[in-house]
């Protein structure tokens, strides 16, 4: 089996799908590995750290005869149309958009595994790249908030007076939000958090945060949130606005899978905030949790800074790549038996993670959308 690893081409992407430590562990699977020169550079891994691999200068040489392609970002439309026929590609595949890419994957009879579709069951935790990357993202967003704030996060007692700890509000207490809470707490801030899923209350409290009770719960299927009714949204917004108005920094991480990010902070709420307050909107790329967010920019409104960072895990590219590469390695483990590729469609993880196979879109919601 030949495994190929390209240098990521998406703008701003620093991660790589295979790191030297994970490469070593592939020995046991009996695979040949081919890597595009410089693939790991932006993540801090030089070519000479990848021992025993074959090098390719261009993507074309890399893909020729490859059986499995490991990626971070989905292939471009053009690239998808050139992948080796019948090959396997695994990585983030954005199944909710990019229909031309998906059509090209079908044309080339590529079996694509989308990490966004990995079922969130205990057995698949080691493959759950959404979680591994969200975790890093939550950490970075808390740091970004501390960095952009003109105030300090910790309480300081000094000869020059006492500094009061910052008040941080985290909205959305999933994987990213919980890490943002933990990080802001470690920096010494007073942290309040909110999520529509009431089950998160206990998790927030276990990290030393205070849960904001809006009286609205929206527990959805599979541990995800459902969309709220208009009345619920208004009630939630008013209680949240009161807490946001008092905050020095707000980190928002609210998401609904496959849907635009819920708008939780409107312009009027931003205008109630203190000058110098900061919002870091982790949902910027899917439309933002704040009405004023612009993806990839820091916007200022009435003295409040609203940051909309893009591709946050890429900011911690070394560790993000390490964790991501382990996720892929664990998926490879399920597909390779005795040195042969073996796709067991009775395995829930394999069946549900597969986006395209033998010319068909296997993921039902994507197929229905594209029809
Ligand atoms: P996500 O990135 O899809 O969403 C982030 C958070 O936003 C979620 O907690 C969601 O409830 C929240 N949210 C949505 N709408 C909101 C709104 N209007 N207001 C406030 N918050 C809102 O979710 P995620 O972090 O990837 O995962 C969510 C949860 O799924 C995890 O916390 C965990 O409990 C569960 N999970 C389970 C497994 C597993 O069992 N293997 C793996 C990963 C996650």
Written overview of the protein:
With 371 residues, the protein is an alpha/beta fold. The protein has helices at 20-25, 59-63, 77-80, 99-107, 129-148, 175-186, 200-206, 230-246, 267-272, 317-335, 348-353, 364-370; strands at residues 2-5, 32-36, 54-56, 68-70, 88-91, 111-114, 156-158, 161-163, 167-171, 190-194, 210-211, 249-252, 278-281, 298-301, 304-307, 336-337, 340-341, 354-357, 360-361. It has an 8-stranded mixed sheet with strand order 3-2-1-4-5-6-18-19. The structure holds nicotinamide-adenine-dinucleotide. Nicotinamide-adenine-dinucleotide binds at residues 120-122, 125, 128, 130-131, 134, 171-177, 194-197, 223-225, 228, 253-257, 262, 264.
């Amino acid at each position: 089996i030949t495994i190929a690893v390209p240098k990521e081409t998406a703008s701003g992407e620093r991660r790589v799908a295979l790191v030297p430590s994970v490469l070593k562990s592939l020995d046991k699977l009996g695979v040949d590995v081919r890597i595009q020169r410089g693939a790991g550079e932006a993540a801090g891994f030089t070519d000479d750290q990848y021992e025993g691999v074959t090098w390719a200068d261009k993507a074309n040489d890399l893909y020729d005869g490859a059986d499995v392609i490991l990626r971070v970002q989905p292939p471009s439309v053009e690239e998808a149309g050139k992948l080796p026929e019948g090959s396997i590609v695994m990585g983030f595949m954005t199944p909710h958009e990019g229909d031309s890419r998906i059509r090209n994957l079908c044309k080339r009879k590529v079996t694509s595994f989308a990490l966004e579709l990995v079922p969130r069951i205990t057995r698949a935790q080691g493959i759950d790249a959404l979680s591994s990357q969200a975790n890093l993202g939550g950490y970075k967003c808390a740091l970004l908030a501390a960095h952009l704030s003109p105030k300090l996060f910790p309480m300081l007692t000094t000869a020059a007076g006492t500094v009061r700890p910052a008040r941080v509000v985290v909205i959305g207490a999933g994987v990213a939000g919980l890490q943002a809470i933990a990080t802001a707490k470690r920096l010494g801030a007073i942290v309040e958090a909110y999520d529509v899923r009431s089950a998160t209350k206990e998790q927030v409290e276990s990290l030393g945060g205070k849960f904001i009770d809006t009286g609205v719960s929206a527990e959805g299927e599979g541990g995800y949130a459902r969309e709220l009714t208009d009345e619920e949204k208004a009630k939630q917004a008013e209680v949240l606005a009161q807490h946001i108005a008092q905050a020095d920094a707000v980190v928002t991480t609210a998401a609904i899978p496959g849907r635009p990010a819920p708008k939780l902070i409107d312009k009027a709420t931003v205008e109630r905030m203190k000058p110098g307050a900061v919002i870091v909107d982790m949902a910027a790329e899917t439309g933002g949790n704040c009405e004023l967010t612009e993806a990839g920019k820091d916007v200022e409104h009435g003295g409040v800074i609203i940051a909309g960072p893009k591709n946050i895990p890429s900011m911690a590219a070394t560790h993000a790549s390490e964790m991501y590469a382990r996720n892929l390695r664990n998926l490879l483990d399920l597909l390779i038996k005795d040195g042969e590729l073996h796709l067991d469609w009775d395995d829930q993880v394999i069946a549900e993670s597969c986006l395209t196979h033998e010319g068909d879109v296997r993921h039902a919601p994507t197929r229905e959308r594209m029809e």
